[in-house]
Design goal:
heterodimer, A: Rossmann fold, 2 domains, seven-stranded mixed β-sheet, five-stranded mixed β-sheet, 13 helices, 42% helix, B: 334 residues, alpha/beta, Rossmann fold, five-stranded parallel β-sheet, two-stranded antiparallel ribbon, 39% helix
Chain lengths: 332, 334
């Protein structure tokens, strides 16, 4: 088991490190990449287990179908590339070969979202969570930091069956979990308790959500609950509704389009089980742009201040529509 | 093993393609010793099955199945090392129908070998049946991997080959993928071809059922695939071209591919709708099921061929499936 990280580091490094641990423990673990092994960090596995590592070159569709063939013959493939190619370019291969067959294949998708930075819109996928979430049988995991990402990769082998999409990021990201957590649990994790509003965050927006809660407490006297949604699908709706029932209003924040991803996952659960206002922060009907990671995030308002502002807007609606919870919980 | 073609018609008034079909006994041994002439007759049996299935299903790709019938018969009845009683046998050869739309021909071969009851064939493409429009590994016994989206199959085969190598089985288990003209047009096929050569998989045979007809016209009109043999050759494969309806050539090429230490491509020149005169090599039947009249005409021709093949085989070759007094179907069987 690796040491927990304390300094900012990209979640993709957890993918590479944990993959080596899995490779040591389990003969059937194999890894594939599409000429991005250094970027995705699968290169670490490749160096340790060259006979079990298959670089497919710049041919992502072939990589996904090869992963299908390997899994159909008893291996547990981890196939990595940039998120944009893992989903958009090879959707059909993932869909029929992996998801339809319910094969235990893990897609290690690095460089998700606009924080990929300088390469710009061609590489910044902001639809991948939506694409993988609508795909039948596919599980979607978006870890918050290195330590949670490490656990996610380990549990992707040891705990979960069926196909799984895991989104990692390019830039160094502050540590949220001081230790490598013992488990992902339900995938919905209350990091900070509060009674006034629920802030649902995933991936790179988790530490920003915690900062937003700090500023809301400091500047507005608002006690925000910060909920890290690391497993976007299947969503642990009970935990989501429990928080919304307590606070009566929510906001979501993700480095992704505001449709199809975390926002819709939360809203779908709320709409049926506890209809309260849930505001979304994310990418509108737009593509990304070139810039540094942080500049891109700021350009699209994907910041702690952005979350806090969205929370303030949502709070304005709370007294208007607040009502007793439909499915339990306390009057908020 | 009873063959459906040898059964008397139990109800003469019923359309011939609705004849009840009995469950065959699984063969005691994979039929590796079948002669070329016997294999030709098995191909006819598979073709008859396909016509009957499609006539009942009223949906599916008949002509695409018929063009591959000789290849599939050669594989399932002679070349493949497989055991219907133990479909998960790790050392088995793998059959991947990359051209998944020809599912009926694989289903016919699987049923004839006892992977599932023969009568299941009549459920093709119907709600509740395990026989989906395209092969589905999660539903149908004997299907190694789900296909139907052209271009993916060869890449899947490469993945299977690599897994077999990790398990030390690459010298025993051969992977046979059957591709179509459409597969050849898909770019992913060439990604897979490159990967097979790069990783030097020694146990992969790509059999191209090159029937020159596709949905919108001839392959040459729609998107000419050119010299497919030369293309595989350029990708570093052992590539040969044969007559895909000459059983002797098919068997020889398949057996030879097993002995090669590199990926092998067998370009089979075939005719879509082979065995049914009004369909053979003609455009306009892709994805169109036969009408009842067409099915009856096709069956008449194929059953006559079967009888002729049986006659030729008759005296000199034992024909276990030619019981002169086959047991009548059980009452109520359907």
């Amino acid at each position: 088991m690796a040491e927990a990280k304390t300094e900012p580091i990209a979640t993709r490094h957890a993918y590479g490190d944990a993959l080596v641990e899995l490779g040591e423990a389990h003969e059937e673990v194999v890894a594939l990449d599409a000429d991005l092994a250094v970027s995705t960090q699968s290169i670490k596995f490749g160096k340790e287990f060259p006979e079990r590592f298959f670089n497919c070159g710049a041919a992502e569709a072939n990589m996904m179908s090869m992963a299908c063939g390997l899994a159909a013959t008893g291996k547990v493939p981890y196939a990595s590339t940039f998120a944009v190619f893992a989903t958009g370019r090879s959707y059909d291969q993932v869909r029929l070969g992996i998801a339809h067959n319910e094969l235990k294949v893990r897609i290690g998708a690095s460089h998700g979202g606009v924080s990929l930075g300088e390469d710009g819109a061609s590489h910044q996928i902001i639809e991948d969570i939506a694409l993988m979430r609508v795909m039948p049988k596919m599980q979607v995991v978006v870890p918050a930091d290195y330590n949670q990402a490490y656990r996610a990769v380990i549990e992707s082998y040891e705990r979960f069956e069926g196909p799984m999409y895991m989104r990692f990021g390019r830039p160094s990201t502050p540590i949220v979990y001081e230790q490598i957590p013992e488990t992902l649990g339900s995938g919905v994790d209350v990091l900070r308790e509060g009674k006034d509003i629920s802030i649902f965050v995933t991936g790179h927006m988790v530490w920003r959500g915690l900062e937003a809660a700090e500023s809301l407490a400091r500047e507005d006297g608002v006690e925000a609950e910060v909920v890290n949604v690391a497993i976007v699908k299947p969503l642990a709706t009970e935990a989501v509704i429990e928080s919304l029932a307590k606070t009566g209003v929510g906001v979501t924040a993700e480095e992704h389009r505001v449709v199809g991803g975390l926002a819709d996952a939360i809203r779908e659960a709320a709409a049926e089980q506890h209809p309260v206002p849930v505001f979304a922060l994310g990418m509108q009907d737009e593509f990304g742009v070139s810039g540094t990671a942080e500049a891109c995030m700021e350009h699209f308002g994907l910041t702690a201040a952005g979350i806090a502002d969205r929370a303030r807007e949502a709070l304005l609606l709370k007294p208007i529509v607040s009502h007793p919870p439909i499915h339990g919980g306390e009057w908020g | 093993m009873a063959s459906i073609a040898s059964l008397p018609d139990p109800e003469p008034d019923r359309p011939v393609h609705l004849k009840p079909v009995p469950d065959p006994e699984p063969p005691a041994e994979p039929g590796r010793s079948h002669s070329i002439a016997e294999l030709e007759r098995f191909a006819t049996v598979l073709r008859i099955n396909c016509v009957r299935m499609l006539a009942v299903a009223k949906s599916g790709h008949l002509d695409s199945s018929l063009s591959a019938a000789d290849i599939v018969a050669a594989l399932y009845y002679r070349v493949l090392r497989h055991d219907p009683r133990n479909p998960g046998w790790p050392e088995r050869d793998r059959f991947v129908l990359c051209k998944g739309h020809a599912a009926p021909i694989q289903y016919a071969a699987l049923a004839e070998h006892g992977y599932f009851p023969h009568q299941d064939l009549m459920g093709l493409r119907k709600i509740g049946s395990h026989l989906q429009g395209h092969p589905d590994m999660t539903r149908t016994n004997g299907v190694e991997v789900s296909t139907g989206s052209l271009g993916q199959g060869l890449s899947m085969c490469v993945g299977i080959c690599l897994a077999l190598r990790l398990d030390g089985l690459h010298d025993t288990a051969q992977v046979f993928g059957v591709l179509s003209d459409g597969d050849i047009q898909e770019g992913e096929t060439w990604e897979g071809a490159a990967a097979a050569a790069h990783y030097e998989v020694p146990n992969l045979t790509a059999v191209v059922d090159y029937n020159h007809l596709q949905t919108d016209g001839t392959t040459e009109e729609v998107m000419d695939t050119g010299d497919v043999r030369a293309k595989f050759d350029a990708f570093g494969w052992d590539a040969i071209e044969i007559d895909g309806h000459d059983m002797g050539q098919i068997v020889e090429a398949l057996e030879r591919s097993r002995t090669l230490r590199k990926p092998a491509a067998i370009i089979c020149q075939t005719k879509k709708g082979r065995g049914v005169s009004f369909m053979e090599g003609r455009f306009g039947f892709h994805g169109k099921p036969p009408s009842q009249e067409q099915a009856d005409e096709a069956l008449k021709e194929l059953e006559a061929l079967y009888e002729q093949q049986t006659e030729t085989l008759g005296s000199s070759t034992p024909s276990p499936e030619l019981d002169p007094q086959p047991a009548p179907p059980a009452p109520g069987a359907s």
